[in-house]
Amino acid sequence: MGIQNYYGNLKEKFSTRLKRKEEEPAKAIAHPPRMHNLGEEIRLLVHSQSFEKAYSTAAPFLFASLGAWPGYWLFRGMDYHVHRSHIPLPIYIRQTYYQAKVVQLFIIMAGTYTVFRNASRLRLMNANRVAKSS
């Protein structure tokens, strides 16, 4: 009884260890890692309330930026007759291009600053509400 019982216990231990090793790869294959879905994360971000607030805050600046480019070119085109006697046309066009880019950049930076300033105010207001309610 003693020797047979000892060998029986050893056999059970080895068989359970072998079964565990065989089951682990099967589990890994049965449940592959989930793929990171960037499109879904962007969709959730765009449909969030905070994004909507930030976009509504920045919308006037975005539209002003879209109008600034052709508007500045139109202004510079109408003003060329004043400068044509001492600035050649290719140089004037290059100057207009860079100046229009700078105007557009300042408008976008002003919009970005406004969004971040309003977002930090909202965070501070929410933090104060949480502190007062506690």
TrEMBL record:
Keyword Membrane: yes
Organism whose genome encodes this protein: Drosophila melanogaster
Transmembrane segments: 54-75, 96-116
UniProt keyword list: Membrane, Transmembrane, Transmembrane helix
Protein name as it appears in the record: GEO11850p1
Gene name per UniProt: NEST:bs19a11
